Amino acid sequence: MKEYIEPAFQIIFGDALTGFEPLIYKNKQSLLLQNPFTQLKCKNNIRDLLFLHQIHSTEGVTISLENELLSFPAFFYSGDFLVTNLNLVGIAVATADCLPIILYCSKKNVIGIVHAGWRGSVNGVAKAALNVMKNSFGIHEEEIRVFFGPSAKSCCYQVGAEVINKIPKEFKKDVLSGADNRFLDLPYLNQLLLEKIGIASQAFNYNYNDCTICNLHYHSYRREKTANRHMTIAFLR
User: Among 21, 81, 78, which residue's Cα sits nearest to residue 53?
Assistant: First the structure.
């Protein structure tokens, strides 16, 4: 597990040691009372932990009122991003090759987290999350910082025609490489898509973007067809 910590917010990047199977926790309340999540409450003082049932969509959920936390069963509501302005509320994604993206605005103290597989990426799930942050909280693109968590990377992420044909033509030469241009740089694709709508190139942090396929510290669906996932959690402090 790795952590990025600032006075105003924190990100936790899980790995296989803190991995879990989402279906086991579906519809459960109080995730922080169950392993492997209990340490988050003790160590980080998180008061709630929210996961969606991820469906590779461009839909998401915004949590801005305390009473919205009262009825939020784990993995029940469908969507692929969460946004909040509430302190110590962990918003999370579960991944095993897909890309976790964290969007943070210091000016309005708003944070979002995105689950971006190739489908969500080419359909603009990160843009959808950013639009919600803009419309709900009045943030601007130049105020956003972006963090990428562990995911499949271009060293290992071989894709077929179904994926290649969905990538915008203008980006193909930048995000495809290797034999027959079949290796996809999923994080960089998301960077280019976000830069296109106004996020600055210097806003992106790749320090925690390990490859989940070749790094055995992570779960990888591509490598082992596992039902296990690792968590990425972001919260305001």
Answer: 78
Token reading at 154? 């271009």
Residue pair 161/226 in contact by the 8 Å Cβ criterion: no
d(CA 114, CA 147): 10
According to DSSP, residue 18 is labeled G
DSSP-based helix, strand, coil % in the chain, nearest 5: 30, 30, 40
Question: Residue 64's CB: how many other CB atoms inside 10 A?
Answer: 12
Predicted pLDDT of residue 232 = 98
Q: What tokens were used for 75?
A: 């993995």
| Closest listed residue to residue 81, CA positions, set 108, 106, 57 | 57
- The model's pTM is 0.96
Closest CA to 223 of 155, 152, 160: 152
